[in-house]
Amino acid sequence: FSSYENIKVEKKEGRVALIELYRPKALNALCTPLINELNDATEKLDLDADVGAIVITGSEKAFAAGADIKEMQSKEYINAYTTNMFANWANLSKIQTPTIAAVNGFALGGGCELAMLCDIILAGEKAKFGQPEIKLGTIPGCGGTQRLIRAVGKSKAMELVLTGNMMSAQEAEAKGLVARIYPVEDLVDEALKMARQISSFSKPIVQMAKEAVNASYEMSLEEGCRFERRIFHSTFSTEDRLEGMTAFVEKRDPTFKHK
Ligand code: CAA
Predict the structure, then answer these.
(1) Predicted confidence (pLDDT) per residue in 164-192, tens digit
(2) Are 104 and 127 in contact (CB under 8 A)?
(3) Ligand 1 binding site (Cβ under 6 Å of any ligand atom)
(4) ipTM over 0.85
(5) CA-CA distance, 107 to 127, in Å (whole number)?
(6) Handedness of CA 231, 232, 234, 240 (dihedral sign)
(7) For 15, left (φ over 0), alpha (ψ -120 to 50), or beta?
(8) What's the predicted TM-score (pTM) here?
(9) Keyword Lipid metabolism on this protein (predicted)?
């Protein structure tokens, strides 16, 4: 991880990892090298037996101010199409380890989309979310028109996408985009605390829970509930399911084997 230039990666106690987006002069604009480093780091951490959850954060001023406009400025259609520009951003949403976005400051355009690729969004009380691409003569290109509507509903998503207006952390929490709000200086510690809580449970069971929740994006209610039930049944093949229920019955804390 030490060779990265646009992110900092640290493994912390309690089986969690912290990734800091680090392009301070560009408000963490998400250039191609940054996304490549982020994908490389998250893929490695996903396979790391010592990591049960990953926190992704930026600076107090900006989680990320979007895709790198300077990098895109002179691109032509043929290049955008043939390189399938931004397709690999979604790699982050495909890892099995839970991810928490800890958002302080601006999460705009690709920054908001990156946060939405994570499993949980926590926000500092001054965070601002938005999809301002319309002001640049373009539209969101990494799921903004699709994931935002699922989080905040059509009217609010349309407002953000068509006007470029920003949404406060408080509004984002009220609409369900954000799970919790914390004081700016406490945000990363609180995110790590939540990551440690998740990491304290059985790793395969956590991953199954994540997979089942994510399936709801793609399936009908009937199919989704059937998928959930089958995964639920499969938890009965694990020692950790037996341990969890036995510990409850015996009035003691469980010791999960698979972490
Ligand atoms: N790309 C490249 N550079 C960026 C950037 C971006 N998205 N956002 C900020 N920067 C750079 C600025 O150019 C500036 O660099 P210089 O000092 O070299 O001029 C530096 O970061 C600081 O920015 P500002 O001086 O603008 O800071 P501010 O406090 O006055 O304003 C801001 C902050 C409102 C976030 C403003 O920077 C801004 O509007 N940024 C662009 C936001 C945006 O449009 N994002 C969407 C990008 S498109 C996209 O993301 C497509 C997609 O769907 C994936």
Answers:
(1) 999 999 999 999 999 999 999 999 999 99
(2) yes
(3) 26-27, 29, 65-70, 86, 106, 108-110, 113, 132-133, 136, 140-142, 144
(4) yes
(5) 7
(6) positive
(7) left
(8) 0.97
(9) yes
Beta strand 99-103 with 62-64 is unpaired
**Considering only CA atoms, which residue is closest to atom 54 of ligand 1?**
110
- The protein residue with its alpha carbon nearest to ligand 1, atom 47, reads 66
Average pLDDT over residues 43-72: 98
Residues annotated as part of the active site: 67, 110, 113, 133
Helix, strand, coil percentages for the chain (3-state, nearest 5): 50, 15, 35
How many residues does the structure list for the chain? 259
Geometric angle at alpha carbon 241, from 96 and 101, rounded to 5°: 30
pLDDT of residue 116: 98
